[in-house]
Amino acid sequence: AQTVTQSQPEMSVQEAETVTLSCTYDTSESNYYLFWYKQPPSRQMILVIRQEAYKQQNATENRFSVNFQKAAKSFSLKISDSQLGDTAMYFCAFMKLNQGAQKLVFGQGTRLTINP
Amino acid sequence: DSGVTQTPKHLITATGQRVTLRCSPRSGDLSVYWYQQSLDQGLQFLIQYYNGEERAKGNILERFSAQQFPDLHSELNLSSLELGDSALYFCASSVEWESEQFFGPGTRLTVL
Fold this sequence. Notes:
The complex is a heterodimer. By secondary structure, chain A is an all-beta fold. Chain A contains no helices and 12 strands. Chain A starts with a strand and ends with a strand. By secondary structure, chain B is mainly β. Chain B contains no helices and 11 strands. Chain B has strands spanning 5-7, 10-13, 19-24, 31-38, 42-50, 53-57, 64-68, 74-78, 87-94, 102-103, 107-111. Chain B is globular. Chain A binds chain B through residues 33, 35, 37, 42-47, 50, 91, 97-109, and chain B through 2, 31, 33, 35, 42-45, 48, 50, 55-56, 58, 88, 90, 92, 94, 97-98, 100-103, 105-106, 108.
């Protein structure tokens, strides 16, 4: 079974700073996707970024980028020029590619607070 | 707005009761997933349907059941409710198997 670990329960930074959230996972699979989801106080789950395991290039979405280290099974999220609206719970998630049957396995989350 | 709708937004009921949560996927999405978010268990996968057929099962209790209808909407039925069933229940949908899942706003269930 796959497991996802987020070792930072809480983080806090000042607005405009850069922050990195850590995630490690355990799997024997070679074909999978990794995701970061954001859950603001509204409780809505919002997809932030996706990484395919077969791609060596790290994914980037505007101010959000990942550092994917497949051998180390590490998948960190970097938020640049942080904004007050980035305040949220962030969940790392793993999805094994299994034709017809997909599920997300989530970490416990990191609560990120951006201070003005 | 992800395009996934869930009703109701909030549900308060008593132990031993039965409730039904409803989900409408994004237009064109064939796969529907149900997740439970609770304080002690975190976010856990319950069940997946693809075009009306059950495709994967996670940590879903026997008291819980789900189905996906021909119009692709899905319902999650929770029966013999216990205090520990209080949680946020999310529905998500995706176009195909190998694509990202988009989440609805969730249904907050409170069992008193």
